[in-house]
Design goal:
The protein is an alpha+beta fold and 119 residues long. It has a domain at 39-117. 16% of the residues lie in helices and 33% in strands. The strands form three sheets. It has a three-stranded antiparallel sheet with strand order 1-2-3, with no helix packed on it. Strands 4-5 form a two-stranded antiparallel sheet. A two-stranded antiparallel ribbon has the order 6-7. The longest helix has 13 residues, at 24-36. The two termini are 36 Å apart.
């Protein structure tokens, strides 16, 4: 059971009071300039799966400081290929990350259905 320092009524009324550091704008200008210094170098490599209704791609690109980031892109076979263009189509984007030793998993939603049920 979760424990809280505030009562339920206090939690409902609680509002965060953000403190913006004086160098906030400069920090983001500098950070975005540093990020732009590395080429994205995105690669979409087709991956053969047993999924009859989707094209699957192994996606890799340069993240912060040029560090590699990898993931999977699933696109409906009735839509455009990953490097195509023009048509909008539903797709599933799933990421996994670790924070404080706990796995975090997020998945986009297709319309009103969870992405895992789109295909």
């Amino acid at each position: 059971m979760a424990l809280f320092d505030l009562t339920p009524d206090e939690l409902l009324d609680y509002r965060v009071k953000p403190e913006i550091p004086p160098d906030f704008e400069e920090f983001w200008r500098r950070t975005l300039a540093e990020a732009a210094a590395f080429p994205l170098a995105a690669r979409f490599t087709p991956y053969d799966t047993a999924l009859p209704n989707v094209h699957a791609y192994d996606v890799r690109f340069a993240g912060w400081g040029g560090e590699p980031i990898a993931g999977w892109l699933l696109v409906p076979r009735t839509g455009q290929d990953a490097d195509g263009g023009g048509n909008r189509c539903r797709a599933s984007c799933s990421t996994s990350a670790t924070a404080a030793g706990a796995a975090i998993r997020t998945t986009t939603r297709c319309g009103r259905r969870p992405a895992s049920r789109c295909w």
